[in-house]
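Dear Dr. H.,

I hope your travels went smoothly. While you were away I took the liberty of generating a structure for the chain from your last submission, since the lab meeting agenda had it listed for discussion. I wanted you to have the full record in hand beforehand rather than looking at slides cold. The sequence, exactly as received, is reproduced here:
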Amino acid sequence: MAVMTSRFADGLAVGADLVETAESAVRRALDGLSGPADLVCFFICGDDPDEVGRAGHRAMALAPGAQVIGCSATGVIGAGQGIELEPSVSAWAASLGGARITPFTLETLRTEDRFVVIGLPEREPDDQVAIMLADPYSFPTDAFVEHSGEVLDGLPIVGGMANGMHGRGSVRLFAEGEVHEGGAIGVILGGPVRIDTVVSQGCRPIGPSMVVTGAEDNLLLELAGQPALARLEDIVSALDEDDRELVASGLQIGVAMDEYAERHERGDFLIRGVIGIDPEREAVAIGDVVEIGQTVRFQVRDAETAAEDLHELLEGYRRRADGIDGALLFSCNGRGSAMFGSADHDALAVRDRLGPIGLAGFFAAGEMGPVSGHNHVHGFTASLLVFSSPAAPAAPNA
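The corresponding predicted structure, in token form, is as follows:
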């Protein structure tokens, strides 16, 4: 089945013969367009990396007039549903009118004292966004994305870390007719195209917001003038039994992105994991480096909270935007059936709030998307790139 719109369409196919499956998915997406495709994205889930490569070659050959990118994955999204750990291909095709589409292939070179990323095209003044697919085993995605504001002058990056059914060595990336077994690929979209981002981190705050008054590397030593561990223990002791279970299953922390806001609520934080404690120093270790003076707030995540967060963000975006007709969805492979009991959850949420638009994507090993104007790599997140009609008024980034 393909979702048909005037400018965007998606296709999904399931089958053991990945080459045939890829051809079916891409053709369905292309047939759903009212004009020729300018950009095609496809995502392949398959057990044999060589067969995944052959399927990708076939997919790239089907739209010779378009820029075509894709990657391997452990699950794909298309036709309003998600497919996990089964041979399947999803495809997305777009007619973008006068938009400029600039492909890129990134590689990492090692110098005497550091790694250098090469292959990034020159930034144009009217560039809108970069779509990026990366191999998490060979490319320094976190470092590149976190520092992308410097080299890309604030250009938003949306995308996902690819994966394969056998982890390291089984990832395949597809761009400009070539199969890549590492690095990162993508396109930069510029010119007259209306694009917005929606990033759902799916967490709920617990306890108060607190200023970091002592820190060392990724260790929180003091929060609001008291030992960080003591602060955390006080917060947990005041929770009900259900929330204590959520803390035990995976505590998170939010780093406020706007220090000047009067209040910090859900959606105002960059979410990072709490990875351990140091009882001797009464410290809390987190998955990021936080400086003294920043504001943080502990967080929990469950299926209900994650679903509510995504629905609220999409509903808020729908009310601000107009003429929405296409989107790419990069959903964490820890979501889907593992979190919601259904691989279809995020795709159905998008359809429910934004309508039957051309939507495809994959279950990623890490998702890229901006929060408060800065690019980050996330976990357990749904990151969307949403396209609206040229005549629609622009909506601010979510």
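Two observations you may find useful: Residues 1-5 have pLDDT under 50 and may be disordered. Residues 253 and 272 are 5 Å apart (CA to CA).

With kind regards,
E. W.
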